[in-house]
Design a protein that fits this description.
This protein has 203 residues and is of the alpha+beta class. It is built from 5 helices and 12 strands. It has a 9-stranded mixed β-sheet, with helices on both faces. Strands 1-2-9 form a 3-stranded antiparallel β-sheet. The longest helix is centred in the last third of the chain and has 19 residues. This is Restriction endonuclease.
């Protein structure tokens, strides 16, 4: 299953013109990373319900309600004061709750008797601009750091956009993260999820 509507293509600001592959910058916003990973959990784990906790900025950047509706998830109840906060259900009975509340983990699912909790970051996936490349790297380090500082109730996963650079960094971090019980997953432009295993570095 792939998604063609996760990436937002925008014209670069003057200081980044010519620094991306192609005319536009391809933004994989944090909200897009969240829903892609939520779908991955529904697809691959024994769970029917995933919770997503964006903040207000994520809601401005990414239209959660419209994206879920295009996947045939119908809103069945509301949560909080935003238009998109609520629980969405599809015909198979799978549910995604979008609850704009911080401090709960970006994507959370209960699988059996344990919890999967993911911290997510977004970024520009086709950029060569040093500042934006650095932001991608920092995003991965920040998600790992957030998980390190959070008491674990089960599996903890750092989730960031897939680029050649984030893959290299993830492969370097994976062995140490594994010792701390932290997994790393990379989300591609169509929502494909790659788990980075310790010892998966190529050479």
């Amino acid at each position: 299953m792939d998604f063609e509507d996760l990436v937002t293509a925008l014209s670069p600001p003057p200081n980044r013109v010519g620094k991306s592959d192609g005319e536009h910058e391809h933004h994989l916003y944090e909200g897009a990373v969240m829903v892609a990973y939520a779908m991955h959990l529904l697809r691959t784990q024994d769970t029917q319900h995933v919770r997503v906790h964006p903040d207000g900025e994520h809601g401005k950047q990414f239209d959660f309600a419209a994206w879920l509706l295009r996947r045939d998830f119908i809103k069945i109840s509301s949560v909080g004061t935003t238009s998109y906060g609520g629980t969405y259900r599809n015909a198979a009975g799978q549910e995604v709750t979008v609850n704009p509340k911080s401090g709960l983990g970006d994507v959370v699912a209960e699988v059996g008797n344990h919890v999967i909790s993911a911290e997510c970051k977004g970024g520009i996936i086709n950029t060569r601009h040093s500042g934006q490349v650095s932001r991608l790297y920092k995003g991965l380090c920040e998600t790992v750091g957030m998980l390190m500082a959070t008491p674990s109730q089960g599996r903890q996963v750092a989730v960031v956009p897939f680029t050649e650079g984030t893959l290299r960094l993830a492969e370097r971090l994976a062995p140490r993260c594994a010792l701390a019980g932290i997994e790393i997953a990379l989300v591609g432009r169509r929502g494909e999820v790659r788990d980075v295993q310790p010892g998966s570095a190529g050479g």
